[in-house]
Automatic annotation (TrEMBL):
TPR repeats lie at residues 481-514, 515-548. Keywords: Cell cycle, Cell division, Mitosis, Repeat, TPR repeat, Ubl conjugation pathway. GO terms for biological process: anaphase-promoting complex-dependent catabolic process; cell division; positive regulation of mitotic metaphase/anaphase transition; protein ubiquitination. One of its GO terms (cellular component) is cytoplasm. It comes from the Eukaryota. The keyword Repeat applies. This is Anaphase-promoting complex subunit 6. The keyword Magnesium does not apply. PANTHER family: CELL DIVISION CYCLE 16,23,27, CELL DIVISION CYCLE PROTEIN 16 HOMOLOG.
């Protein structure tokens, strides 16, 4: 009868935990442990204390038991108590000595002599070794040893692909480069029934190349194929239809993918629907803020910032949203202060550091901007944006060779971002201009060499711009109009006038209010001797900006040239 009564008390403890009545759970668990002195009941008592936030008492109970070093559950829960107490060195000491390599292979000298005492369960469990590896990673990250943290997170996800926290930390904290992400994903051993999880992880890892050539289609999206797999309805079980089509996490992931592709309106519309469904889904909120920033929706940013500050005053995302609002309305000093506050609340909040640098860059305060970008590049080695922005700052100060080096580093980290290729094209174009001007200060014998170099940089710029367009989903959106115009300018410089005109016309199909496009098209017609069309487009350019000096002067020249041509033809 006593055993039956104790089992009922255990049931009471489990029920109290499920109803979040932690004081009641602690009370009854303490009595059960006193009755039995069973290690499993002691563990249940420690678990109740942990859930009731009595971390020091729970740790003392676990540490006082003789089984703490022989049962992985005891050791892990004791380390979790130390994690909550922020005693990171003691946490690592409790977990024991272990070694891990760059690929996430680890060895734990203590684990060979320990037990894992648990009650039989029909539920599928996450490997305890994976949980321990993840906790080691968190401890090292808290101690600012990000290299070791990255290796232990990799070890955790490799030990058990179900440990989602590990891959989330690796991706959200930008710890892996493109090649490392692909290598890690290919090394994971999923169970047969976890095919959907493999596809989901593939969607999370967005630095993989997004497009592949296909014999039937010009471009087939690798990531979108994974999304389609997850959204497809599985009707193999007639009593249950399995699909993630309306899953918030998957749709948030898709919205982030749209943002990375530059489809900001599509992204904004999707996140708007998601936030109506789940207003407190912070991943969707983050993407929604980013899309609203790109689209210049200052009113939406203001409302988001107010709600976030009210609901989450201690979260970095709240003050980041405030900073984005001020950045959007061009009040850069205020935006910088709020980006700084976001990073002070959460030092590993990548958007905050990048926004901090951008706020300084917007006011052309290069040194402070560089400081923010360098901090972000050091903290987030898997994020290419800080390196890309450092390159942009060097380009702004005409340090083209340094800019080119940083753009190439950004390309190595994320070879799928078309913006990187666009900037490489721009820097190649400018390096050609630099080569052209320096050619005036060298001897006549070297003129031909400089002319060859001049053409080489233009060819290189053309190649980069065409590669940019190859990485952009079709049809092109207006945001890529400048890339098309840049390519047209480059082709004009190479005297490929027909091809240049084709790209100018493509740019006009994207935006009809670009002075640069009309001026470039007019000048190209002018160079070809087609003065009538040149005059027409000079007039269109001047309609946009009547004070443009280049178009005004060239229109006069074109009119004179056309008159001269008419006179010569009559003669």
């Amino acid at each position: 009868m006593m055993e039956e009564h104790i089992e009922k008390l255990r049931g009471v403890v489990r029920d109290c935990v499920s109803k979040h009545l932690y004081s009641s759970a602690i009370f009854f668990a303490d009595k059960v442990a006193a009755f039995t002195s069973d290690p499993a009941d002691i563990y249940m008592q420690a678990q109740a204390l942990f859930l009731g936030r009595h971390y020091r008492r729970a740790f003392h109970l676990l540490n006082a038991s003789q089984i703490v070093l022989r049962d992985l559950r005891f050791r892990y829960l004791a380390a979790k108590c130390l994690e909550e107490l922020k005693e990171w060195d003691q946490c690592l000491l409790m977990l024991g000595e272990a070694k891990v390599d760059e690929h996430g292979n680890f060895s734990d000298t203590k684990d060979s002599n320990v037990m894992y005492l648990d009650k039989d369960s029909e539920d599928r469990e996450i490997n305890i070794s994976s949980a321990i590896c993840f906790l080691r990673g968190k401890a090292y990250e808290a101690l600012e040893n990000r290299s070791q943290a990255r290796q232990w997170y990799k070890a955790a996800i490799r030990a058990d692909p179900l440990c989602y926290e590990a891959i989330e930390c690796l991706i959200e904290n930008h710890m892996l480069t493109c090649e490392e992400e692909k290598s890690l994903l290919s090394s994971l051993q999923f169970a047969q029934e976890d095919g959907w999880l493999s596809s989901f992880y593939s969607c999370l890892i967005k630095k993989v190349p997004k497009y592949i050539k296909n014999t039937h289609y010009d471009k087939a999206s690798i990531v979108e194929e994974k999304f389609n797999e997850l959204e497809k309805e599985d009707t193999s079980n007639h009593s249950l239809t399995c699909t993630l089509k309306n899953n918030t996490d998957l749709l948030a992931c898709k919205a982030e993918y749209y943002h990375q592709c530059g489809e900001y309106q599509k992204c904004f519309e999707l996140t708007s629907v998601l936030l109506e469904k789940d207003p407190f889904h912070l991943k969707s909120t983050m993407v929604h803020i980013a899309a609203a920033m790109e689209l210049g929706h200052s009113n939406e940013l203001y409302l988001m910032a107010c709600n976030l500050v009210k609901d989450y005053p201690q979260k970095a995302i709240s003050w980041f949203a405030v900073g984005c609002y001020y950045y959007c309305i061009k009040k850069y000093d205020q935006s910088r202060r709020y980006f700084s506050k976001a990073t002070s609340l959460e030092g590993t909040f990548a958007p905050g550091w990048i926004g901090y640098g951008n706020a300084y860059a917007a006011k052309e305060e290069g040194d402070q901007a560089m400081s923010g970008y360098r901090t972000a590049a050091r903290l987030f080695p898997g994020c290419h944006l800080p390196t890309l922005y450092i390159g942009m700052e060097y380009m702004r100060t005409h340090s083209f060779k340094l800019a080119d080096q940083f753009f190439m580093q950004a390309k190595a980290i994320c070879p799928s971002d078309p913006l990187v290729y666009n900037e490489l094209g721009v820097v190649a174009y400018h390096m050609k201009e630099y080569a052209f001007f320096t050619s005036f200060f060298v001897s006549v014998k070297k003129k031909n060499d400089h002319f060859a170099l001049w053409c080489m940089w233009y060819k290189k710029a053309e190649w980069w711009f065409k590669k940019t367009l190859a990485h952009i989903p079709t049809p092109l959106s207006e945001m890529w109009e400048s890339t098309v115009v840049n390519l047209a300018h480059t082709l004009r410089k190479l005297k490929l006038y027909s091809e240049a005109i084709t790209y100018y016309e493509k740019a006009l199909a994207l935006s009809t209010r670009s002075l640069s496009t009309y001026a470039g098209l007019a000048y190209t017609y002018h160079l070809r001797g087609n003065y009538t069309d040149a005059i027409t487009y000079y007039h269109k350019a001047l309609w946009i900006n009547p004070d443009d000096q280049f178009c005004t002067e060239m229109l006069t020249v074109a009119l004179v040239d056309e008159s001269r041509q008419g006179i010569e033809s009559e003669i």
